[in-house]
Specification:
310 residues; globular; single chain; 3-stranded mixed β-sheet; mainly alpha
């Protein structure tokens, strides 16, 4: 790569889905619909948990934070993506790009650890029901949630500081619909092997730690469920865990495909499609999965709805 092709970048151009202009109207309407559902469902879930005393339990405490994080990182990505689809102006300032990446990375890493914490909560609730309220105290809940946010903040700050060390870029055109780390590193003029190594190590270690917690917890949960004498109790436990496990598999699967492999910025078309799942689709699915399969949430919603309209 010739040094003469390298320049200091003041703004980036997000290509997004400009390679399929014939689908512009369809994609904009689809993503607008999905974002509308995401907005209402996640804020609605957070509000419902706050106002319904029935849902003032550790499980729903963590779920309210999951809904908040899902709402945040969807809002960080989707409105700008919709604007770029509908507009010929697809630029984003260098500072705006870095801020978008930092906030997005913070939310994603926070959710990775939050899903593991929610699994641990289910482990305590199912395997030690008599000690659950004592074990999962308010102090422990606050400590666990704070730890998730700290992990997200520190991790994204490390990536941001390394990215800001890049002096110049061979192009300012990002073949993606938001400012993600792999496509940004792909444009760097200097050697970014340290950045890529740190990305793979941190993403892989986060995945390993959380997946081990999740698998271990579910192993003990499965053993406990199979030992239950009540068929109704087994069904209820399986139903609760199945919804959580569905969200975990989809989310961790997409994260692993994009970030836990060297040279992750090279397969941009595949990464772009995969990214849609965890930036657009999953934030919409999480509150629907937990609410549609949960009797407590549906009962709380009916009660709040009847109080409003009566």
């Amino acid at each position: 790569m010739g040094q003469e092709n390298c320049t200091i970048v003041t703004e980036f151009i997000l290509l997004g889905f400009s390679d399929v202009p014939e689908l512009r109207v369809f994609l904009s309407l689809l993503f607008l619909l999905i974002y509308g559902v995401t907005f209402v469902a996640n804020l609605g879930m957070t509000a419902l948990i706050q106002v319904s005393s029935r849902l003032h339990t550790p499980m729903y405490f963590f779920l309210s934070h999951l809904s908040f994080v899902d709402f945040c990182y969807s809002t960080i990505i989707v409105p700008k993506m919709l604007f770029n689809i509908l507009s010929s102006e697809k630029t984003i300032s260098f500072l705006g790009c870095m801020v978008q990446f930092y906030l997005f990375c913070t939310c994603v890493v926070t959710e990775i650890f939050l899903l593991a914490v929610m699994t641990y909560d289910r482990f305590l609730a199912i395997c030690s029901p008599l000690l659950y309220t004592v074990s999962m105290s308010q102090k422990l809940r606050m400590l666990l949630v704070s730890g998730c946010y700290v992990c997200g903040t520190v991790s994204s700050l490390i990536h941001l500081c390394l990215a800001l060390e890049i002096p110049s870029y061979r192009s300012n055109v990002i073949d993606h619909f938001f400012c993600d780390l792999p496509p940004i590193l792909n444009l760097a003029c200097c050697d970014v092997s340290i950045n890529e190594l740190v990305e793979v190590i941190m993403a892989t270690s986060s995945e390993i730690i959380t997946v081990v917690i999740i698998l271990t917890s579910y192993l003990f949960i499965l053993i406990t469920i199979l030992r239950m004498r009540s068929a109704e109790g087994r069904l209820k436990a399986f139903s609760t865990c199945a919804s959580h496990l569905t969200a975990i598999v989809v989310f961790h699967g997409t994260i692993f495909v994009i970030y836990c492999r060297p040279g992750s910025g090279n397969g941009m078309r595949t990464d772009k499609v995969t990214s849609v799942f965890y930036t657009v689709v999953i934030p919409m699915l999480n509150p629907l999965i937990y609410s549609l399969r949960n009797k407590d949430v549906k009962e709380a919603f009916r009660k709040v709805g009847s109080n409003i309209f009566l």
